[in-house]
Design a protein that fits this description.
With 215 residues, this protein is an alpha/beta fold. It has a single domain, classed as 3-Layer(aba) Sandwich (Rossmann fold), CATH 3.40.50.720. The chain has 8 helices and 8 strands. An 8-stranded mixed beta sheet has the order 3-2-1-4-5-6-7-8, with helices on both faces. Helix 1 links the parallel strand 1 and strand 2. It is globular and about 45 Å long. The N and C termini lie far apart (46 Å).
Length: 215
């Protein structure tokens, strides 16, 4: 039985956890306020879920979802995530995160920052461009007409294949944007950020995306 660990259990993290439990994964949840603050969510999710510290969630997860405010990414435990697939859901919001110079000048991307912090992990960008509430309402079976697609980006082929299988189980097609450095194509204020898109539509959105400096 595969376990998915969660570092951060806010809007996106809790919704992905709901999808995971619905698809027979075990989940270990953590947040910055302590396991006891997750009792209501654990009770909702049932026996496949438990709360823990971030370090314990990182250790327990075969796959680990990082869904913390971007300004807190350097607090993500490093050693327990060595060699693991890490899904990065983060976005950069100035009003929350403050200025991060290398993102302001677009010399890197949010997922590349996390990858640099986790040098031996396999970071895959996913779940960052869908409204949290839609994660549990928009999924459809494989082959369904107009099935919604979600973008991934990553530098490790096998890790991306793992996340693609996960998305399919959760009810979504996958569009691969390429390596982590291409993750900017689905950051805030790009065409694909937010709206419901099929795979074909999302590929067009990625192609049409412009750097902030070019907008």
């Amino acid at each position: 039985m595969i376990t998915i660990g969660f570092i951060g259990a806010g809007h996106i993290g809790s919704q992905v956890a709901r999808l995971a439990v619905a698809n027979d994964y075990n989940v270990v949840l953590s947040n910055s306020r302590g396991p006891e603050t997750l009792s209501a969510l654990v009770a909702e999710l049932g026996p496949k879920a438990r709360a823990a510290t971030a370090v314990d969630a990182a250790k327990a997860g075969d796959i680990v979802v990082v869904s913390v405010p971007l300004k807190s990414y350097q607090g993500v435990p490093v050693e327990p995530l060595a060699g693991k697939v890490v899904i990065d859901t983060n976005n950069y919001y100035l009003e929350r995160d403050g200025h991060i110079p290398e993102l302001d000048n677009e010399s890197t991307t949010t997922a590349e920052l996390l990858q640099a912090h986790l040098p031996t992990s396999k970071v895959v960008k996913a779940f960052n461009h869908i409204y949290a509430a839609q994660l549990t309402t928009d999924g459809r079976p494989a082959g369904a007409t107009n099935r919604r697609a979600l973008v991934i980006a990553g530098d490790d082929r096998e890790a991306k294949a793992t996340v693609t299988r996960l998305l399919d189980q959760f009810g979504f097609d996958t569009v691969d944007a390429g390596p982590l450095k291409e993750g900017w194509r689905i950051q805030r204020d790009t065409p694909g950020y937010g709206p419901r898109r099929t795979a074909e539509e999302l590929r067009r959105d990625l192609a049409a995306a412009k750097r902030y400096a070019d907008q």
